[in-house]
Write a structure and sequence with these properties.
This protein is globular. Helix content is about 65%, strand content about 0%. The protein has a two-stranded antiparallel sheet. The longest helix has about 35 residues. Helix 5 packs antiparallel against helix 6, helix 6 packs antiparallel against helix 7 and helix 7 packs across helix 13. It contains 14 helices and 2 strands, in the order ααααββαααααααααα. The protein is mostly helical and about 375 residues long. It has one domain.
């Protein structure tokens, strides 16, 4: 018979739940506004689908939450290898959508396995650095296995032509490298190799439209009706919000549909237009508190594996949020990275909830060991 330790319920992290609930509430209200125009009655279909993903994510989070996270260590490698197989299947069988093969389609259901790769990578790297503590790593060659763990899914995603998610996965994996004690001078060859790799990618790997998006960051007006259109319209939406915003459901850029993909990649521009600088500041403050709270959970964890899991989950939320907001403000190229708990996307929301389940799991067991 399934039994729940009463001490776990007493140690439940209600503050973390309140932060998540607040972000979800604002996110759904924002998504409603982004998809409201043209809907005569009822819920817009993106909101309905997002609610369905929320229900699935809630079930997944509860499943992860009540199983002791220490049991996940021995399941990490099978899960990681299974995700690699899933990425390979996606590369072979997925239809071409917007120039890449990222989505597995089953009837009306669509799933992006590369989102699951972030969770698999966090689990895999947490296991490695738990068995090889970062404070004991002083040489670059000691990072050969973590680099391989990162390179395998990133390489498959690059082959799918989804450069944005590949870059995001690279950043999430590199979060753990910030914990090692390798002298800065030892990283110089890595930086030089990375620069050569970037030059090679610019010349041989990136498509013309991807190069144009990078150039648009330096000069958004160079192609205002094509590659620079989204970035320019996003800046207009953000700027028109001013200090206090134009009001809920009152943003002209949003309601007149000047901004493509405003319910996905550019959802933050909707928030900025309707709620202004003050509204954005409040939301960013909640995000920051969530990230800091996750680091505090890592610090108070009773074992290294739990601490490293919490650090990885923080990285899973920090990097996409930072990249998405920079993209909306015109400080980064448009690379299709969603804003966690805000952007429309069932795969992203489901994986975010699984990751939050791990964070709740570690937090609940800080006092029960």
């Amino acid at each position: 018979m399934f039994r729940i330790d009463r001490r776990l319920l007493q140690s439940f992290d209600w503050f973390l739940l309140a932060l998540v609930a607040l972000l979800l509430a604002v996110g759904f209200a924002n998504l409603w506004s982004a998809t409201y125009a043209g809907v005569e009655s009822g819920l817009p279909w993106p909101v309905r689908r997002q609610l369905f993903a929320l229900a699935l994510g809630g079930v997944g989070m509860l499943s992860v939450l009540f199983a002791d996270y220490r049991h996940f260590e021995r399941l990490t490698l099978p899960f990681y290898l299974g995700v690699l197989v899933l990425l390979g299947i996606t590369l072979l069988l997925a239809p071409v959508t917007r120039g890449n093969r990222s989505w597995l389609v089953l009837g009306t259901l669509r799933f992006q396995p590369s989102e699951l790769a972030k969770l698999a990578l966090v689990l895999c790297l947490a296991r490695f650095f738990y068995r090889n503590p970062p404070q004991h790593i002083h040489r670059l060659r000691d990072l050969a296995w973590p680099a391989l763990f990162i390179a395998a899914p990133v390489g498959l995603i690059v082959l799918q032509r989804d450069m944005g998610v590949a870059l995001l996965l690279l950043f999430v994996g590199a979060t753990y490298f910030l914990l090692v004690r390798i002298p800065l001078r030892a990283w110089i060859p890595v930086v030089v190799a990375a620069l050569f790799a970037l030059a090679g990618a610019w010349r041989f790997a990136l498509r013309p439209y991807q190069r144009s998006r990078i150039l648009d960051v330096l000069d958004p007006a160079r192609d205002p009706l094509a590659s620079g259109y989204q970035a320019l319209q996003s800046r207009i939406a953000v700027g028109s919000g001013g200090l206090f915003g134009q009001g809920y459901l009152e943003g002209t850029q949003t309601q007149l549909r000047f901004l493509p993909t405003q319910h996905t990649d550019f959802i933050f521009s909707v928030l900025a237009e309707e709620w202004g600088f003050i509204g954005c500041l409040v939301v960013l403050a909640v995000y920051l508190i969530l990230l800091v709270w996750g680091l505090l959970i890592a610090r108070s964890s009773k074992d290294g594996f739990g601490a490293l899991l919490a650090v990885g989950v923080v990285g899973m939320f920090f990097w996409p949020a930072a990249i998405n907001i920079a993209m909306v403000l015109g400080l980064a190229p448009v690379i299709g990275v969603p804003l966690p708990l805000f952007s429309y996307g069932g795969s992203s929301l489901l994986v975010s909830f699984l990751a939050l389940g791990l964070l709740f799991n570690v937090s609940m067991r800080r006092y029960v060991f």
